Structure formats: C-alpha cells, structure tokens
Amino acid sequence: MFALSNADGAREQGAEVDLFQVSDFDASMLENYGALAFGCPAMGSEELESEEFQPLWDKVKDHLGERKVVLFGSYEWADGEWLENWKADAEDASVNVIDSLAAYDAPGPQEQAACQALGAALA
Questions:
Q1: Helix, strand or coil for residue 38?
Q2: Distance, CA of 74 to CA of 85 (rounded, Å)
Q3: How far apart are CA 9 and CA 48, in angstroms?
Q4: Which spans in the chain are helix H?
Q5: CB neighbours of residue 17 within 10 Å
Q6: pLDDT at residue number 49
Q7: Terminus-to-terminus CA distance in the chain, angstroms?
Q8: What is the distance between the alpha carbons of residues 39 and 101, in angstroms, rounded to a whole number?
Q9: Rounded to an integer, what distance in angstroms lies between the CA atom of residue 65 and that of residue 2?
Q10: pTM beyond cutoff 0.85
Q11: How do residues 9-29 score in pLDDT, each as one tens digit?
C-alpha cells in the first residue's frame, strides 16, 4: 500500500509510473527511468531485507547517477535506524536521495499521504 501511495503521487503530477517487485527489476532496466522510489521494510536487526532487496540495492546504487531517488519503508521495533543506515549507504554511493520516509508499523493515513508527497516530488 505504501508503494501505491508513492505511485499515486507521481501519477497526480502527470508522471508515467511502473511498479515492480524486487525480483522483477534489475540494473539493466535503470536506463528506462529518470527517477526511482525504493521501498523496503526494516528486517532483522535494523537492516534491509537480505534475500532480494539488499542484493538489488547493491547492484544498482552505484549506477543511479543523478536520477532523483526516494527511499521509504516501515519498521516495527527499535527506532527506524535501518533507514538512516540506508540513507548513509546511498550517500556513500553518491545517490541523489531527495527525500525518505519511515513509518512505524503499518502505514496509516498520515504516512500514506506523506508517501504520496514523495511520489509527487519525484515527478
């Protein structure tokens, strides 16, 4: 639902939007997009999901160039440190992160609206 809000925000600004599951996207597809939103929940000990998302992120982060990027996700324990670590990793790779959003537990209406604004900022 978080990803849908992000997509809706971009569409409202007139952007064409494609949604992908992590397993359906790879670095060779980057050339088709001028802006990207990456969503991943916190897993384990405040880290990105390790089976699919982390490997994808590791493959694409150095190839994002000046594309606008937003990072978002949810967490259910601790304090959302995973997003700060993710943003630091993106910064180290010179990713153009224009904004990010972390929601505690299931995103409510306020978080959905904030994620929609992230999508609008990408458009």
A1: strand
A2: 14
A3: 24
A4: 2-12, 53-60, 81-92, 109-122
A5: 19
A6: 94
A7: 19
A8: 9
A9: 25
A10: yes
A11: 999 999 999 999 999 999 999
